[in-house]
Automatic annotation (TrEMBL):
<protein>
    <recommendedName>
        <fullName>30S ribosomal protein S17</fullName>
    </recommendedName>
</protein>
<dbReference type="GO" id="GO:1990904">
    <property type="term" value="C:ribonucleoprotein complex"/>
</dbReference>
<dbReference type="GO" id="GO:0006412">
    <property type="term" value="P:translation"/>
</dbReference>
<keyword id="KW-0689">Ribosomal protein</keyword>
<dbReference type="GO" id="GO:0005739">
    <property type="term" value="C:mitochondrion"/>
</dbReference>
<dbReference type="GO" id="GO:0005840">
    <property type="term" value="C:ribosome"/>
</dbReference>
<keyword id="KW-0687">Ribonucleoprotein</keyword>
<dbReference type="InterPro" id="IPR012340">
    <property type="entry name" value="NA-bd_OB-fold"/>
</dbReference>
<dbReference type="InterPro" id="IPR000266">
    <property type="entry name" value="Ribosomal_uS17"/>
</dbReference>
<dbReference type="Pfam" id="PF00366">
    <property type="entry name" value="Ribosomal_S17"/>
</dbReference>
<dbReference type="GO" id="GO:0003735">
    <property type="term" value="F:structural constituent of ribosome"/>
</dbReference>
<comment type="similarity">
    <text>Belongs to the universal ribosomal protein uS17 family.</text>
</comment>
Amino acid sequence: MSFSLSRTALQATRTTSLPCRCLPTALPLRSFSSSSLASTSAEPAAERPKYSLPNGLLLHGIVTQTGKCSQTSTVSVERKSVDHKTLKEFKAHTKYLIHDPQSLCVVGDQVSIRNCRPVSKRKRFELVEVVKGARERVENMAAAAVEEEEAKAAKEASA
């Protein structure tokens, strides 16, 4: 019996909590116009495709492998996480196979990729754009431009 008495005594001394002030107590009512309730508008509804994919997940990563399979590249995406116990931040990498139809990627490119319909068993991402080219690609393009200019100069000098 003493237990039930002490329990009721504890409940009696507990203060009631006040309602949260950050939320309004009474939500304003939404007003509907008469035209939105009735679907008798004269204009037809816009045609939507039967199936459509959402814009999807957009990731940024670095190309780590190309050339093993045609139209396929491997992209490593880095994400940062915090260990809940030690509160230390660490990096984790995930490798994705991407569909690259024109084989534009070179190892070292920074690319943005987006998820798409499954292309194969492991390929579920597609190349959106090459954000920054690899150093080798930039050097090769610069060397090719210099060679073209030298060829033009030699052609003009001989003519």
